[in-house]
């Protein structure tokens, strides 16, 4: 294949840089507290149900959208629609406040579906940019840029949160920051990255063709044993990762009584170490192999949840957070590489639709629910250990997947 230019690869990675501003401000740190304490009057259940609803919508439509994009060679167009939906809905969150729970929940679902759904098409560009031998390295660059974006967006958000805390109405300015950050830094991808046109592009009804291809994809996936095994493993361990991310702030606030400033510092440590982890493990993936790298990162996750069970101080939790960041950056980057290596070239968007659009999003509905039940019955620390068991199950499932390696590039003729 023809390798993309450095400028195009950089433009692709900038999309990771852009969308993590939304992730860290709206999904992870600031808006969850504002939504729960200001909009929902302290009721945390509404937040959980809203996030679950957005993940369910994405899980249901993701594979179909991947099929349509493959049929029409319109990944960039779909990515643009989802990105615009996320940005516009995030701007709308500025107008929420006490008693606007239906409006806020609706806007959050739209925004998060736009964010999560867009990653399906974004990930599917990877096999079009570089050959298999560079998947690990370039995927690592993308995640590294994402974590850099998280750090910068957090740094920009700190002055916008008033001294009174996140519950102050002025906090809504951070929502505008998240929207502007995503919209501005996503533009280079749309302006500079070219989408390869399929030789078998379909020109009829895209919805009907999408359903037809979706049925075919389900049939095809059944024929690829390693893809099936990896998707199941990814479902289990990604569920665990997302659960830790969702409850990290709650754990820090309730168990360690960390202030907002300390929470910001904690998440900056996590994002900074994740940047390092995505770079280091992205480079090591080509040497160790994707499967071995994933196993190493999952073992790190096991150490993280065990460490969280025993920590009693903010300083110790910062150390656990740094370790979690290393595991976060490496596991996500290497998983994307593993899926790219196992996926047939002509089915990349459809299979990525199942990988990210269905398995990645559907898994986010199970872990938090289990965590919440265990936490209510036995405490949040015990729930962390249950997550560790899921990580061990994920390792066992990964071991059943073949050690996929990139095919060596043919030697240049002389």
Written account of the structure:
The chain has one domain: MFS general substrate transporter like domains (Growth Hormone, Chain: A), CATH 1.20.1250. Helix 9 runs antiparallel to helix 15. 79% of the residues lie in helices and 0% in strands. The chain has 15 helices and no strands. The two termini are 18 Å apart. It is globular, with a radius of gyration of 20 Å.
Q: Which regions have little confidence, pLDDT < 50, spanning 5+ residues?
A: 410-414
CATH class division = Mainly Alpha
Please give the share of residues in helix. over 70%
Instruction: Specify the structural class.
Output: mainly alpha
What is the fold named in CATH at topology level?
Growth Hormone, Chain: A
Taken as a percent bin, the fraction of beta residues is under 5%
Q: Mind telling me the C-alpha Rg? A: 20 Å
CATH homologous superfamily assignment = MFS general substrate transporter like domains
Number of strands: 0
Give the oligomer, counting copies of the same chain as homo and different chains as hetero.
single chain
- Average pLDDT works out at 82
H/E series: HHHHHHHHHHHHHHH
Helix tally equals 15
Describe the sheet with the most strands.
Answer: none
The shape is globular
Overall number of structural domains: 1
